[in-house]
Amino acid sequence: MEIIAIANQKGGVGKTTTAVNLAASLAAKRKHVLLIDLDPQGNATSGTGLDKNDLELTMADVLLDGVSLSDAIERSPAGFDVIGANKELAGMDVTLMGHTNSHELFKTAVADLVSSQLKSSKDAYDYVIIDCAPSLNLLTINALVATDGVIIPMQCEYYALEGLADLSQTIERLTELNPKLHIRGVVRTLYDARNTLARDVSAELEAHFGDLMYKTLIPRNVRLAEAPAHGLPVIAYERWSKGARAYQKLAAEVIKQSR
Ligand SMILES: Nc1ncnc2c1ncn2[C@@H]1O[C@H](COP(=O)(O)OP(=O)(O)OP(=O)(O)O)[C@@H](O)[C@H]1O
Ligand SMILES: [Mg+2]
């Protein structure tokens, strides 16, 4: 089981779109996938067709009340497993302030999930994909402490480069708590090849990250923006759209890294 966090503290760069569509594309390649929403906005939850305000159990119950991850798993209409989130998760920073090991709650929950899957005859997950909030708060730290690798979606614009130092620093600092933690890859999102600045920033990212850049470019594609309104990953909404094909290519790259 590989745990991958989709993180970037910058807002609106395509984290959720990447988490949902990477999960769906991996599932389409017969991988056993669990998508976990760790953002109180609950976008990944609604993007997979679940009603975020009408869930029996969410990540808030897991992190604040000690409910097990396996009890909170929902089968999404999109065809893979999801653990949802909603605004109940928003108070977590305040609620857990001063709580010892507050940064390890998610890691403990994941360890329990792994051992319960080993005990039962259930198929273990190949991939657990975590959608993080646009912040380096306690929730994101919980994700990074439990994660093997981080995928960073980046929009190729000037400010993208500014936030990068903070995220790299946080990842560096957290390797003390989680020696496995590393950047698995950087994916360029909302990409418009006609835009000169996008091409320049893209080249700068390549110079900085080298092999850590995924070759797949995720284009700006209206189908990717429409699909969540139907509660579907793009692959189920418009299978042959540019966006759907790009995320399938990205999934192939991610699988190749696992070998
Ligand atoms: N490749 C794309 N083409 C077109 N629209 C996109 C693409 N990627 C994302 N979008 C749209 O851009 C907006 C922001 O994307 P998304 O919600 O995935 O970003 P995010 O990083 O998760 O945001 P937040 O930081 O708020 O969690 C959404 O409306 C989404 O539908
Ligand atoms: Mg999001």
From TrEMBL:
SUPFAM superfamilies listed in its UniProt record: P-loop containing nucleoside triphosphate hydrolases
Matching Gene3D superfamilies: P-loop containing nucleotide triphosphate hydrolases
Domain AAA: 1-183
Domain of life: Bacteria
InterPro entries according to UniProt: AAA_dom, DNA_Partitioning_ATPase, P-loop_NTPase
Pfam families per the UniProt record, alphabetical: AAA_31 (PF13614)
CDD domains in the record: ParAB_family (cd02042)
Protein name: ParA family protein
Upper taxonomic lineage: Bacteria, Pseudomonadati, Pseudomonadota, Gammaproteobacteria, Moraxellales
